[in-house]
């Protein structure tokens, strides 16, 4: 690099031509010329004044490293690296006659405070959530896991966005083969712009066209810690308040942090309820179409009479009214989410009551399908994962179509296809839908076993350190 400040100034101006927030300040201190390069929209001017200019004015002839008391301090001989540092919010200092540039961290930090989780509300547990600042999120995780075993590896992904990505895992627990595979997949990403979690999810997942989520997304640091302790890995990125957990299994999407803060009997009941709602969300609308059109003999005679009387004056056949009501449910859900909170709640309540009543009174749909649609929506909302809940609701549509053609046989065939598909899926080489065929496999999948009985970690993700609990209830003689 040319040691002249005028040469470096010319290069910076070429790189930042036409950008009004780029600043180049000339300073003459003790007979030595200095140049400061920065973007004034990214730096904190008070920090520059206090920790850069004032020390230089007091000791102009001393070495820069000895004078400036900034922890975020780097040196480089590459002017291209200095340009990238300016873009990232650093201040670049060039001393005339020296070939090196000083990269000084004086960036303006604007971030929202740590708040309660908004999408994963639970009754018990910590009330802290990740925010958009990656350093703050790593700080939360370091405090929750104060151990040298917690490894944090950072990546810069995206040619233009330079998105900072951090991968966390417990060195003595995580499977090294999973860590190496994740590193290979992240390093292979070559794009101009990367956003998390959606971009990273689609770029590293095994099945590109699978409807089922293959990565678990969370905004809770305590939940991320719990999965780290099981041997899994956590991906966090700058600009996103969500973290990605992997490798994950089908059963993890039905687990909630609440399960471990209440009695294990209650935790087991709620977990079984969520799994039942998974089947209910997919099968209930299809079952309605089937018994309305093909198999009414499967129901008690009184129920059949009630069902037939409600369908007597309905304009459309069961297939059309069922799909229409399911789509109406999705429209109301989206309207509730997208609108402001008070207006969204009003739309959800008033829209559901008014539209449902008018549709029934106009004989466009029966009373029964309104009940079926409401139960289907409620059942899907019980599932803790938004991604799994959305996938399950979408699966109900092909089930409805098959039931409209083949009746209950079509519904049974569709469930068989789903379970076959789940059994052949994998994430990071780990089976996605490993059936809990043994007692140890059931303990934290179908049921929530007592804490003192969860002595082993999942065998798939931590083969080298499976011991989680060594002496449970050792106080009891």
From TrEMBL:
Pfam families: GerA
InterPro entries (alphabetical): Spore_Ger, UPF0353/GerABKA_families
Biased amino acid composition, Basic residues: 468-477
Keywords, ordered alphabetically: Membrane, Transmembrane, Transmembrane helix
Coiled-coil parts of chain: none
Domain of life, source organism: Bacteria
Stretches that traverse the bilayer: 272-291, 311-332, 339-359, 365-383, 395-422
Region Disordered, annotated ranges: 457-477
Family statement drawn from the similarity comment of this UniProt entry: Belongs to the GerABKA family.
PANTHER family according to UniProt: LEUCINE ZIPPER PROTEIN 4, SPORE GERMINATION PROTEIN
Protein's name according to its UniProt entry: Germination protein KA
């Amino acid at each position: 690099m040319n040691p002249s400040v005028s040469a470096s100034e010319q290069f910076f101006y070429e790189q930042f031509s036409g950008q009004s927030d780029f600043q180049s300040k000339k300073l003459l201190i003790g007979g030595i010329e200095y140049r400061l390069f920065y973007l004034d929209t990214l730096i904190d001017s008070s920090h520059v004044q206090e920790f850069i200019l004032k020390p230089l004015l007091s000791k102009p002839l001393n070495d820069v490293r000895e004078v400036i008391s900034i922890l975020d301090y780097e040196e480089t001989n590459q002017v291209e690296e200095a340009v990238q540092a300016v873009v990232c919010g650093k201040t670049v200092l060039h001393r005339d006659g020296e070939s090196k540039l000083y990269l000084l961290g004086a960036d303006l930090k604007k971030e929202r405070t740590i708040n309660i989780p908004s999408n994963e509300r639970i009754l018990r547990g910590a009330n802290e959530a990740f925010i958009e600042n990656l350093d703050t999120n790593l700080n939360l995780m370091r405090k929750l896991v104060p151990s040298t075993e917690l490894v944090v590896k950072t990546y810069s992904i995206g040619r233009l966005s330079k998105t900072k990505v951090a991968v966390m895992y417990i060195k003595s627990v995580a499977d090294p083969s999973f860590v190496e595979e994740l590193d290979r997949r992240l390093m292979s990403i070559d794009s101009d712009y990367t956003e998390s979690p959606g971009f990273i999810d689609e770029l590293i997942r095994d099945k590109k066209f699978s409807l089922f989520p293959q990565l678990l997304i969370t905004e809770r640091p305590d939940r991320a810690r719990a999965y780290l302790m099981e041997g899994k890995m956590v991906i966090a990125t700058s600009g996103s308040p969500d973290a990605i957990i992997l490798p994950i299994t089908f059963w993890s999407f039905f687990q909630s942090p609440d399960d471990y803060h209440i009695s294990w009997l209650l935790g087991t009941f709620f977990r079984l309820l969520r799994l039942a709602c998974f089947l209910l969300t997919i099968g209930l609308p299809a079952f309605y179409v089937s018994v309305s059109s093909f198999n009414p003999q499967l129901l008690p005679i009184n129920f059949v009479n009630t069902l037939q009387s409600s369908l007597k004056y309905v304009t459309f056949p069961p297939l059309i009214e069922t799909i229409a009501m399911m789509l109406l449910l999705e429209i109301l859900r989206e309207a509730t989410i997208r609108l402001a909170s008070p207006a969204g709640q009003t739309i959800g309540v008033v829209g559901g009551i008014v539209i449902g009543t008018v549709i029934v009174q106009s004989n466009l749909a029966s009373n029964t399908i309104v009940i079926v649609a409401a139960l289907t929506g409620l059942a899907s909302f019980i599932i803790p994962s938004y991604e799994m809940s959305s996938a399950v609701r979408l699966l109900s549509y092909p089930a409805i179509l098959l039931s409209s053609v083949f009746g209950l046989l079509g519904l049974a065939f569709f469930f068989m296809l789903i379970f076959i598909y789940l059994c052949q899926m994998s994430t990071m080489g780990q089976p996605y839908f490993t059936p809990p065929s043994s007692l140890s496999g059931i303990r934290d999948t179908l049921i929530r076993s007592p804490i003192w009985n969860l002595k082993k970690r999942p065998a798939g993700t931590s083969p080298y350190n499976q011991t989680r609990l060594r002496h449970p209830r050792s106080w009891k003689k």
